[in-house]
């Protein structure tokens, strides 16, 4: 009798496994966190359980409380299957990821959303608001704002993190610009106005690999207070640009010398390419008209100090463009930024 019951159980189990395999979806969740911190950027990976030979479209239910940072996933091919990684940002409440409809091979498949718990970080008085596996300060610059204040610029890259949430408790004004999400990295330019008495800017970010706050210290001493020195305002003074021009010239000359010795046309072709680069880098810049009364900003951000005002319409070279601002030379050796709307219309 016991043998018969065991056989029945085995038959039922086999039937369940067969049905699970038969009716298993092509897509499934492979990796996702069980819980996250407030305002944390986190990944969710979807796996295809069989090869997909056509275009795939992921459609997220817009009625859910959060949406992916980008609807284009990072795709990795492993053996005959693909992994699709999406990034989301948590809120203060429990996270419910959206239901996903997946269109492929003329079919449609649905994945239910996920419920992920949200928790608070322990208090840290220097916390910048950034949660990441790593935070990199690529460059920084400190300049005079006025007699009492300085302005600091940080170029940040957060790996698996929220760089645009950067915050300093000691800042009287602050702003993040040039926010860029590239795969699992988020970068931005952060500007803050701080007291000129501050000699070091100290802040922390929460490292999700080490599960602790990591402190970063940036010297807040002004090395050069001239406008041309701030945030690489004048590309004509850019040492990297000068080095590029010198490199183009050297490669051109070397290509000609090698051609004379070896008589191979490939060297002439290489030389002409770098000669073209050299000529393009020395072409005169586009000239623009700037309206009378235009305010000149020290930096291309709204919180920037206004250096002076244009007395009358002027024609000047356009040196660059960023964040809705245009870089101009408005006096000999004087460089600044104006808003795009202050350019004269034809």
* Beta-strand residue fraction: 35-45%
The share of residues in helices is 10-25%
CATH class of the largest domain: Mainly Beta
Q: What is the averaged pLDDT score? A: 82
Strands of the largest sheet, in order across it? Answer: 1-3-6-5
Distance between the termini: 97 Å
Integer-rounded radius of gyration:
28 Å
- General form: globular
Q: What about the largest sheet?
A: 4 strands, antiparallel
Unreliable spans are: 9-24, 225-237
**CATH-derived architecture of the largest domain:** Roll
Please tally the helical runs, counting DSSP H or I stretches of 4 or more residues: 3
Number of domains: 3
Overview of the structural elements:
This protein is α+β, with helices and mostly antiparallel strands and 346 residues long. It folds into 3 domains: 25-119, Immunoglobulins (Immunoglobulin-like), CATH 2.60.40; 127-225, Immunoglobulin-like; 235-342, SH3 type barrels, CATH 2.30.30.40. The chain has 3 helices and 23 strands. The chain has helices at 2-23, 239-262, 265-281; strands at 27-31, 35-37, 41-48, 57-60, 74-78, 81-89, 95-96, 100-104, 107-111, 115-119, 127-132, 134-144, 149-159, 173-182, 185-195, 200-207, 212-219, 287-290, 295-297, 306-309, 314-322, 325-331, 334-339. The strands form 7 sheets. Strands 1-3-6-5 form a 4-stranded antiparallel sheet, with no helix packed on it. Strand 14 (173-182) and strand 15 form a beta hairpin. It is globular. The chain starts with a helix and ends in a 7-residue tail after the last strand. The relative contact order is 0.10.
């Amino acid at each position: 009798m016991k043998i018969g019951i065991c056989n029945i159980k085995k038959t039922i189990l086999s039937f369940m496994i067969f049905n699970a395999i038969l009716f298993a979806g092509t897509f499934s969740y492979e990796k996702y966190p069980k819980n996250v911190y407030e305002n944390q950027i986190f990944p969710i990976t979807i796996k295809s359980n069989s090869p997909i030979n056509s275009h795939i479209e992921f459609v997220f239910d817009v009625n859910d409380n959060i949406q992916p940072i980008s609807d284009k996933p990072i795709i990795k091919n492993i053996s005959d299957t693909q992994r699709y990684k999406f990034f989301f940002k948590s809120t203060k409440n429990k996270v419910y990821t959206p239901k996903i409809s997946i269109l492929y091979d003329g079919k449609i498949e649905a994945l239910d959303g996920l419920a992920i718990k949200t928790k608070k970080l322990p208090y840290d008085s220097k916390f910048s608001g950034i949660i990441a596996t790593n935070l990199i300060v690529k460059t920084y610059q400190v300049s005079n704002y006025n007699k009492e204040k300085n302005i600091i610029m940080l170029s940040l890259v957060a790996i698996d993190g929220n760089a645009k949430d950067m915050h300093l408790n000691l800042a009287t004004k602050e702003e993040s610009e040039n926010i860029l999400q590239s795969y699992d990295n988020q970068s931005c330019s952060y500007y803050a106005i701080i007291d000129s008495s501050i000699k070091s800017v100290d802040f922390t970010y929460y490292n999700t690999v080490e599960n602790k706050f990591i402190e970063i210290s940036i010297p807040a001493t002004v090395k050069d207070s001239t406008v041309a020195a701030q945030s690489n305002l004048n590309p004509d003074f850019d040492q990297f640009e000068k080095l590029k021009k010198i490199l183009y010239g050297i490669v051109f000359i070397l290509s000609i010398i090698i051609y004379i010795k070896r008589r191979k046309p490939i060297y002439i072709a290489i030389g002409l390419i770098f000669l073209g680069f050299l000529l393009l880098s020395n072409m005169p810049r586009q000239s623009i008209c700037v309206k009378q009364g235009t305010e000149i900003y020290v930096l291309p951000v709204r919180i920037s100090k206004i250096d002076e005002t244009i007395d009358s319409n002027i024609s000047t070279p356009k040196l660059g463009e960023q964040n809705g601002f245009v870089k101009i030379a408005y006096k000999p050796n004087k460089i600044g930024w104006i808003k795009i709307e202050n350019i004269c219309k034809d």
